[in-house]
Automatic annotation (TrEMBL):
Record's signal peptide: none
The keyword Oxidoreductase appears for this protein: yes
HAMAP family associated with the record: Alkanesulf_monooxygen
Name of protein: Alkanesulfonate monooxygenase
Boundaries of every Luciferase-like domain copy: 10-331
Superkingdom of source: Bacteria
Function recorded in the entry: Catalyzes the desulfonation of aliphatic sulfonates.
Gene Ontology terms describing biological process: alkanesulfonate catabolic process
Matches recorded under InterPro entries: Alkanesulphonate_mOase_FMN-dep, Luciferase-like_dom, Luciferase-like_sf, SsuD_RutA_monooxygenase
Gene encoding the protein: ssuD
Length: 389
């Protein structure tokens, strides 16, 4: 089996700061609501997504608590939840992670988020400069991993000290839940090489992603390790390419130039993230230059921080673009679309058959014997298929 033959591990996204149908507009928006998040998680569970990413930050619901809530309403779904070094001690995070893995019966994935906004980090009491945050995170995870893998830790570092720390109850997964991480700076890549299981990149062009994978793979190999790779992308999938591009245009149809300028200024002044700078450089705030690679559209990044690109097209077109990333070494996709409930269905129903992802359960029979087709929901039910396509 080649890299592109094996089905991708496909995760969805919980929009825990709110959702909507138009970027830069209050029209048809959906505020943060636990019941809505539960709908998305349950749909993702049924449709064949392996897990969901729960974002982190001052604008989001607290990820560990939300994941625990959603785990109780789902059966198979895994939860990619952030650890933010410095916002709590490694011992406290080890207890959080172990408990969540236990109550979800081994469905926890861990996402390291060191942070790219100095002002937000200052609000959390973190004042380290960019590269030093990774030195701090390295010490943090020496304690965290020792605790969650063995139950004990002793460490006396420059940033982190832990004397006879203990964790009594181990996680379900051995030796610990998998660790994911994304970061584009040299310091981030050096940090990832000795620690993470899966390195994540935002949706840059295949050429840029390939170059980054090569750098990370070489850094890991220098430490005698292997790393797998994932990509964070939005999706706009419709039955035809033209319909998909119309949907992309509609998503930003109410987005003003003033709103774009304000968002871009915010990225420049509040973020020291190299990854964010790379996202901005794809379009530089110019809405006339948004297809940055075939079917890779940067319109979302005009106002959204972090992941700002979408694959746009028919199921066949988007599947072909995904196979290009797979050929580079990508085996995991963390996906989203606006609004997230409806787009979870669209991506699963249109794209999954093209990329070999099947339902995680056997569907209930809809009829005896002959095939039936949808009859509109009338009281006489569906109709026998004669020459239906």
């Amino acid at each position: 089996m080649t890299k592109t033959d094996k089905p991708l591990d496909f995760l969805w996204f919980i929009p825990s700061s709110g959702d909507g149908s138009y970027l830069g507009s209050d029209a048809l928006n959906r505020p943060a609501d636990p019941g809505y998040f539960r709908e998305i998680a349950q749909a993702s569970d049924r449709l064949g997504y392996s897990g969901v990413l729960i974002p982190t930050g001052a604008a989001c619901e607290e990820a560990f608590i939300l994941a625990a809530n959603l785990a109780a309403s789902t059966e198979r779904l895994k939860f990619l939840v952030a650890i933010r070094p410095g916002t709590a001690s490694p011992a406290y995070y080890a207890r959080l992670a172990s408990t969540l893995d236990r109550v979800s019966n081994g469905r926890l994935l861990l996402n390291i988020v060191v942070g790219g906004s100095a002002s937000e980090l200052a609000g959390d009491g973190i004042f380290l400069p960019h590269d030093e945050r990774y030195a701090h995170a390295d010490e943090f995870f020496q304690v965290f991993n020792s605790l969650i893998e063995t139950g004990h830790a002793d460490f006396d570092g420059q940033y982190i000290k832990a004397h006879n720390a203990t964790l009594t109850l181990p996680p379900v997964q051995e030796p610990r839940p998998p660790i994911y991480f994304g970061g584009s700076s040299d310091a981030a890549i050096d940090f990832s090489a000795g620690l993470v299981d899966k390195y994540l990149t935002w949706g840059e062009t295949p050429e840029q992603v390939g170059e980054k994978i090569s750098r990370v793979r070489a850094a890991a190999a220098a430490q005698g390790r292997e790393v797998t790779f994932g990509i964070r992308l939005h999706f706009i999938v419709r039955e035809t390419d033209d319909e998909a591009w119309e949907a992309a245009d509609r998503l930003i149809s109410r987005l003003s130039d003033d709103t774009i300028a304000a968002a871009q200024e915010n990225f420049r002044t509040r973020s020291d993230s190299v990854g964010q700078a790379r996202m901005v450089a794809l379009h530089n705030g110019d809405r006339r230059k948004l297809e940055v690679s075939p079917n890779l559209w940067a319109g979302i990044g005009l106002v959204r921080s972090g992941a700002g690109t979408a694959l746009v097209g028919s199921p066949q077109t988007v599947a072909a673009r995904l196979r290009e990333y797979q050929a580079l070494g990508i085996d995991t996709v963390i996906a989203s679309g606006y609004p997230h409930l409806e787009e979870a269905y669209r991506v699963a129903e249109l794209l999954f058959p093209e990329i070999g992802i099947t339902l995680p359960y056997k569907p209930l029979r809809s009829a005896f014997g002959e095939k039936h087709v949808f009859g509109g929901g009338g009281h006489l039910g569906n109709i026998k298929a004669k020459s239906a396509s």
